[in-house]
Amino acid sequence: MRTQVAIVGAGPAGLTLARLLEVAGIESVVLENRSREYVEHRIRAGVLEQGTVELLREAGVGARMDGEGIVHHGINLQFDGERHHVPLTDLSGGRSIVIYGQTEVVKDLVAARVESGLPLLFDVDGVTVETLDSERPRISFERDGTRHELECDVVAGCDGFHGVCRTSIPAGVLSTFERDYPFAWLGILAAVAPSIDELVYAHHERGFALLSLRSPDLSRYYVQCRPDEPLEDWPDERIWEELQLRTALDGWTLHEGPVLEKGITGMRSFVVEPMQHGRLFLAGDAAHIVPPTGAKGLNLAIADVHVLAEAIVDRYASGSTTGLDSYSDVCLRRVWRAEHFSWWMTTMLHRLDGEDPFDAKLQLSLLRYVTSSEAAARSLAENYVGLTTL
Ligand code: FAD
Ligand code: DHB
Predict the structure, then answer these.
(1) 90: CA distance to ligand 1 center in Å?
(2) Buried residues in 276-300 as b, exposed as e (16+ CB within 10 A)
(3) Spatial contact of 303 and 56, defined as CB atoms under 8 Å apart
(4) CB–CB of 341/383 below 8 Å?
(5) β-strand 125-130 against 120-121: which pairing, if any?
(6) Residue 35 confidence class, pLDDT cut points 50, 70, 90
(7) How far, rounded to the nearest angstrom, does the alpha carbon of residue 139 sit from its chain's CA centroid?
(8) Tens digit of pLDDT for each residue in 316-343?
(9) Region 51-57: what's the mean pLDDT?
(10) Measured distance CA(53)–CA(61) in Å, rounded
(11) Is the backbone peptide bond immediately before 274 cis, with ω within 30 degrees of 0?
């Protein structure tokens, strides 16, 4: 088999890249080691930046998002028993965010690919990436018990943090930058109308809590927990109790409902540089991870493949490799801004382990500043909705 672009991974990065290339008339093959059912139901992010929304729309996969996505113009920060509104749209020159689950983005992209009849292979095993330094990189994989070889011009490593593409780059090429956090998020999806109109990020002495949503009758809520806590220690009653305590506000009620899904997600910051080697280009979680507090992971993945798609299109149209050569440098500017913002939101809002009273005072001072100074709130807002000037 041969193709122009081999894409490893059918998450948001791989599927969006495949769609952008299809629109530009460039061939690709997408290889995914999980099943279609699995990738379409893996519950993760829920906040789309305006730039992400516009790109999906331009790629012709925005119809259901435009119908079912919920536009939000602000978020709330809660601390010290008070809830403060941050008017994102007013503070960011009119930009907004859309609440639309990653599961739905993935379903729309998979449906579009299937409808176009283009190669998207689920359930492949043993993917290996070889001869990256040559003109003709080769991918090998197994499907239905048979080994296949795929020759291509470019490999897009969109296979997430645990994928094989990053680790196929020879030792010594990549520099790694990382930070671990001593906490995690326990997330639930609950069959109950959201008790809030806009997201609530709550700082509380018992730990952070986040109130989000998926639709008019599905709520998505999170509480800070320890990364090593077994899920069995968190029966539904305990989760609701913590949510109630951490988000309590006079005159407001958090409505409870059946928990449909729950899971614990660890938190880390991670970046490799450069995001490319020879003809392999890493995109999304394969190259970088942010803690989820800034809602940036999915948006960064899509921003990367936007840059990559344009560079690949230019390479075929004009023969110029300028765009491909600068891929990593261009992406890393946005990546590091998101790394800083996500770290900043995370350390501002969570209960830090063995909290030093000095740190706790700094957190509260920062929260007061962000919710009382327009300049500080504007800085949060422009990062949250996604910077356009990078
Ligand atoms: P992924 O979505 O990870 O996609 C990679 C794909 O590659 C997967 O489908 C995987 O199965 C496939 N793959 C892996 N290895 C191979 C292989 N060897 N061969 C072939 N295919 C392979 N972000 C937020 O903003 N908010 C959140 O609440 C949030 N929650 C998260 C919860 C969890 C549990 C995780 C892991 C991430 C969460 N994120 C969140 C981050 C966000 O979901 C990711 O940044 C986003 O999914 C990145 O997209 P991606 O396409 O780069 O990677
Ligand atoms: C959601 C996830 C986030 O990480 C975040 O910052 C806001 C909302 C969500 O899943 O809805």
Answers:
(1) 32
(2) bbbbbbbbbbbbbbbbbbbbbbbbb
(3) no
(4) yes
(5) unpaired
(6) very high
(7) 26
(8) 999 999 999 999 999 999 999 999 999 9
(9) 98
(10) 10
(11) yes
Cross-strand partners of 77: 84, 201
Say if CB 13 and CB 21 are below 8 A apart: no
Ligand 2 neighbour 279 (Cβ under 6 A): no
The β-bridge partners of 21 are none
| 97 Cβ inside 6 Å of ligand 2 | no
Q: What pLDDT sits at residue 389?
A: 83
Tokens 């193709």 correspond to: 3
Q: Residue 142: enclosing H or E segment and its boundaries? A: strand 138-143
**pLDDT reported for residue 175:** 98
Rounded Cα distance, 301 and 12, in Å: 7
Predicted structure pTM score: 0.97
- For residue 16, the CA-to-ligand 2 centroid distance in Å is 20
pLDDT (average), residues 46-57: 98
CA nearest to 21, candidates 293, 306, 232, 264: 306
Q: What percent of the chain has pLDDT over 90?
A: 96
**Count of positions (residues) in the chain:** 390
| Res 12: pLDDT | 98
Q: Which residue is catalytic, options 204, 296, 306, 350?
A: 296
